[in-house]
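We emphasize that the prediction below concerns an isolated chain of 442 residues; any contacts that depend on oligomerization or on bound cofactors are therefore not represented. The input was used exactly as deposited, without trimming of termini.
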Amino acid sequence: MASDSGQLSMSGRPRPGGIDASTRRRVIGASFIGNFVEWFDYAVYGYLAATIATAFFPEADKQTGLLLTFGLFAVSFFVRPLGGFIWGHIGDKVGRKNALSLSILIMSAATFAIALIPGYGTIGIWAPISLLVVRVVQGFSAAGEYAGASAFLVEYAPPNRRGIYAAVVPASTAAGLLLGSLIAALLSITLSPDQMHEWGWRLPFLLAAPMGLIGRYIRVKLEDTPAFLALEKEDDVIKAPVTALFRNHWKSLLLAVGAVLLNAVGFYVILSYMPTYLSEELGFGATESFVATTIALLTYIGFIFLTGLASDRFGRKKVLISASVLFIFLTVPAFMLLDTGNFVVILLVQVLLGAMLTLNDGTLPSFLAELFPTKVRYSGFAVSFNLSNAIFGGTAPFVATLLIATSGSKLAPGFYLMAAAVVSLIAVACAKETSKAPLQSH
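Result of the prediction step, given as a token string:
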């Protein structure tokens, strides 16, 4: 593969952007599978939280066990800002490909290790401590995945299709969640509660190793992006990209953190915490909860790509602002409908909430990548995305459970989502439209 100039098609004519279709397909595949592995793990952990709680916190009551389990989920996010700094530095200084190839290796190894940790009944307090250590390693490695894959795709994409290309990243996220939901549903149907507690919950985590190795193999076969190779050729790569980010692009960084807030809270409340909410707070059966989430995720993937196309046509700001406005006005009514107890109504509400979230989730990767110049793109994306997710995303299931416990209202997660939408609306409204402009290099 050549850079943006000089590559010819078989007919002798230059291909658009100098990048052939097969290369772009491999870039899409490499970006998809790494992010898929990462979010498959997070899905399984969220969907099996109640079972994991009994394995690692058997002496706690049900709600306390859930809080402790989601607390471990949140702690793994606190290391993500540190990971964002380090992976951003690697990605902007050494290259996107090298960062992505290493991050998927660490993530898949850590996820596989969860399956091997003995329960509380075998090693006592060392069981939750071991789980905590592995979750921290996962949080660190995950910090570079979403940002790196998004930057990779945007820098390879044709100028007028950056939105749809970058939408592959949240689509792979939803696909990982979908597989996690399917496996959780299958296990809940086929295994008894005792079997799930003893060994069944471990099975999904074993899949991470082979999937991760496949993803790494695909990634090491690719060249870095034309944008980064151009910086290397001009000897224009920054030695300290994170320092340059805070010194020269702090305004864009603040706007990015605010823009991510709705995505951070909405993603984990709607797509990860929802099965637990339906089963533990509303009394639905675990199987029904997983089935509803699985169907909603199938529609979510389709909506993601429609959103990517819409952001290319109408602009990033219009789509992101639409998402915030819809969440402000419709979230609490949607949560009120969840309490009706009607499965069809609950399914339709989940599809609606998912469709609203895709307006944000499907647009955010291209918006964030375009917000920063090539020299600090990986760092800007990784730091902003991981800061917001560490503070608000990883804590969302914990905060939702805590708000319900303290307020006594099952609508509390809906109000939390509304507040996040207000902050994101203000941030996006203050940002510039980037969809029609060339990628910044400096």
